[in-house]
Design a protein that fits this description.
Blueprint: H1 6-25, H2 29-50, E1 69-70, H3 75-82, H4 92-108, E2 120-121, E3 137-138, H5 139-151, H6 155-172, E4 180-183, E5 189-192, H7 201-224
Antiparallel strand pairs: 1-2, 3-4, 4-5
GO molecular function: beta-glucosidase activity
Domain Glycosyl-hydrolase family 116 catalytic region: 2-203
Protein name: Glycosyl-hydrolase family 116 catalytic region domain-containing protein
């Protein structure tokens, strides 16, 4: 990873939004103004240097893998969405396009949806083999991705993606009480007991948030009528 990247860039945007909100809570108008300028610049750079029309490139380098499809490219959006934000910093149309691409490439094209979401796939639809990490399915990343799908009203895709990694870890590998950080499609795994898998609770949060938003929208429509 070098230059601007989808993963780090998205988290940078999310962190700047968090700074804006914290400054507002502290009534620090100077800090709000400053962080909003940085946030605007970060979003402009992110879109101009990484968006390719369907998803965000892995990074903005000239490497052969710069346009790889990273399953965790919406990590920043995921954080903000779980925090109660919607599309202030990430365009809904692009979020939808990214989720479509990841589900098709990193979930369904890899193991026919039965393994979870692999970290990296090439633009041509092949497994990205540039590093050990790109060839792996990360348990926590898959659950986080599933919760993002859930919040974007993609329940079928969300549960299928989560089911893949759950079945692989617990039923196939027998790692119910030592959930690994990473697995490969040839049954290798590493880092048992890794904490990232606790992101499975984000699915519960996503379900609660989706229910709340549905009830709010229903109330708004009723009030309007």
């Amino acid at each position: 990873m070098s230059n601007h990247s989808a993963y780090c860039g998205g988290l940078h945007i999310a962190s700047l939004r968090a700074c804006v909100e914290m400054a507002r809570l502290m009534n620090d108008t100077n800090a709000v103004d400053e962080y909003e300028v940085w946030l605007k610049l970060a979003k402009k750079s992110y879109e101009e240097k990484l968006w390719n029309g369907k998803y965000y490139n892995y990074d903005s380098s000239i490497s052969l893998h710069h346009d790889s499809i990273m399953s965790d490219q919406l990590a920043g959006f995921w954080y903000l969405r779980l925090s109660g934000h919607k599309y202030e910093d990430f365009q809904k149309e692009r979020v939808d396009s990214v989720l479509d691409t990841i589900f098709k490439s990193n979930v369904m094209a890899f193991g026919n949806g039965k393994l979870g979401a692999v970290n990296g796939m090439t633009k041509s639809g092949e497994l990205e083999i540039v590093s050990m990490q790109s060839e792996e399915i990360w348990t926590g990343i898959t659950y986080g991705l599933s919760s993002t799908m859930m919040m974007e009203d993609r329940r079928k895709e969300a549960f299928l993606t989560a089911e893949g990694i759950y079945n692989t870890c617990f039923n196939e590998a027998g790692l119910a009480f030592q959930t690994p950080e990473a697995l490969t499609r040839d049954a290798h795994f590493r880092s048992c007991g890794y904490m990232r898998a606790l992101s499975i609770w984000a699915i519960q949060k996503a379900l609660e948030l989706s229910k709340l938003e549905a009830e709010t929208n229903s109330s708004i429509r009723t009030d309007y009528v």
